Amino acid sequence: MTLFFDELETRNPAQREADLMRALPLQIAQAQKNTVAFASILAGVNAASIDSRAALATLPVTRKHELLERQQAARQIGTSGQTSNDPMGGFSALRYGASMPHIFASPGAIYEPGGIRRDYWRMARAMHAAGFRAGQLIHNSFSYHFVPAGSMMETGAHALGCTVFPGGTGQTEQQVQAMAELQPAGYIGTPSFLKIILEKALSMGVALPSVTRALVSGEAFPPSLRDWLQTHGIEAYQCYASADLGLIAYETAAREGLVLDEGVIVEIVRPGTGETVAPGEVGELVVTTLNPDYPLIRFGTGDLSAVLPGNCPSGRSNTRIKGWMGRADQTVKVRGMFVHPGQINAVAKRFPEILKARLVVTGEMANDSMELCVESTHISPELAQRISEAVRDVTKLRATVQLLPPASLANDGKVIEDARSYK
């Protein structure tokens, strides 16, 4: 049994970085030339000069809400009375026809193109790491309705050389019956639905001995559920993917974090900004995909994670992340005013003495207060007063300031902590 999906997984890290940075300017040029959105977002950018992570970090981050806003604007009825023929807001390099066999919808609604290239979302790599091999049958319980999840997994399985049963969601008795009769090698879907299927099988008195492995995604996969599945004879591994980007990272048999996919460039930035954080610090995952059909450049996922140090014991040489650690969108409403992580970072940038800042909102709704906790090597009442004035200037709200020594704040990616009582 081949341990690795391909030789890319064991490249020398320096060679991988050189390969990615060589591909990056070409992808940016592709996005500028073939998508209306990035022609605008990256106007004036010399694609050839974006050949390093430092250069990449100078480009703006495009977050999901901005993608949705551009899509919604493109779908509005214009003065001519005709709707736009680009419901994807100018982000897709594909157009309706043979090169785009599907268009999918994610909550929002955000529309994404489906392309014709083999393993379009690059899911075969994660399936291989989970133990699936050519010639096997996979029971796919991701949705085939509206969202691309079912198709993402199916195209990956086909690229791996597997046959797929499109189980979809719901109908647990029929799912159990199909598994019992078809004897698939394993399951792909959400972990919670796999548990529901197994519990239904137990209540029906039906054994499912062939199902010994699973690739799960779409929701949290706590160790308790992983252990529960193991007691029922199933080794389940998780992957992190999105409808926009395809596979981002996947779990290996080492079960030590998630290894980044070979087709993406991942940065971790301070929430509300595009500034990369120090290695190991929690921040927002920002991904640049090398997919020429849907070339998202510095796309903010809104998810928090951190880079794990060292190498993966599985032998794969790519960077590892800790996995999903929460959401980066920490916007709160205080006394009728929205406060954004970007505003807190704007305050911090005014003071070179500030190493790290976190806004803590306490009290009860309609009777709340703000305290800005600041790590600094310089602690004085005068500095606290100046920072407090800056908070008011930026947010139009008052806040007390607590100055703390370095490394006092938790490394959890939080820029704003809502600690109010809602009782």
Automatic annotation (TrEMBL):
<dbReference type="Pfam" id="PF00501">
    <property type="entry name" value="AMP-binding"/>
</dbReference>
<keyword id="KW-0436">Ligase</keyword>
<dbReference type="InterPro" id="IPR000873">
    <property type="entry name" value="AMP-dep_synth/lig_dom"/>
</dbReference>
<dbReference type="GO" id="GO:0047475">
    <property type="term" value="F:phenylacetate-CoA ligase activity"/>
</dbReference>
<feature type="domain" description="AMP-dependent synthetase/ligase">
    <location>
        <begin position="143"/>
        <end position="288"/>
    </location>
</feature>
<dbReference type="InterPro" id="IPR042099">
    <property type="entry name" value="ANL_N_sf"/>
</dbReference>
<protein>
    <submittedName>
        <fullName>Phenylacetate-coenzyme A ligase</fullName>
        <ecNumber>6.2.1.30</ecNumber>
    </submittedName>
</protein>
<dbReference type="InterPro" id="IPR045851">
    <property type="entry name" value="AMP-bd_C_sf"/>
</dbReference>
